Amino acid sequence: NKSGKAIISGETDSNATVTVSNRRAIVNRSGFFALELKLNSGENKLPVVATDQAGNTTEQELTLNYSPED
To answer: CA–CA separation, 9 vs 27, rounded Å?
Structure first.
């Protein structure tokens, strides 16, 4: 990946909200979400938080390593 970007995607409840690194992802009617993020060189820790309408949250942290090519 030469662009330094990653697309984080997944599935959740269709009525949930999802944030990746504090940026809100759009969740479609099927519960699919995707968000493009710019990566920093080296290790990138990306917290993913899904919250349903009742306020219950599920959290997961993704770690991506990015090494830009010269």
So the answer is: 10
